[in-house]
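name: query_chain
kind: protein
chains: 1
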Amino acid sequence: MSKNPKIAVVDDSEVALLVLQNRLPLFGFDVVTYDHAFGADSFIIEQKPDLLLLDVEMPALNGDALCGVLKLNRTTSGTRIYLYSSLPDEDLAERARRCGADGYINKALDMVTLAARLRSIIGIR
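structure:
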């Protein structure tokens, strides 16, 4: 029996985390969440996610800055990281490029589209 892909989400929005925790498992994902950027590196090392979604606009440390740190860390550099925000796609694409993220996903996507995108990124049907 194959395991479900693990999606880790770092976001300061309790509502966003609850929605993803409750809805993505319906599409065959295991979801782990962390509600602030500080300490997220230890969380990611411990969880070993198949994909990390990072909110961009968090207090004290933006997700794109955290992404840059994670991509420089030998232990987390291979983690697939996607910025996850409601910023305009042009802004997200530029931020993702600058910080070394593997891409971006807009929070405006409905859950079916989001799940399909995640499956495509991870390489499952």
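note: The radius of gyration is 13 Å.
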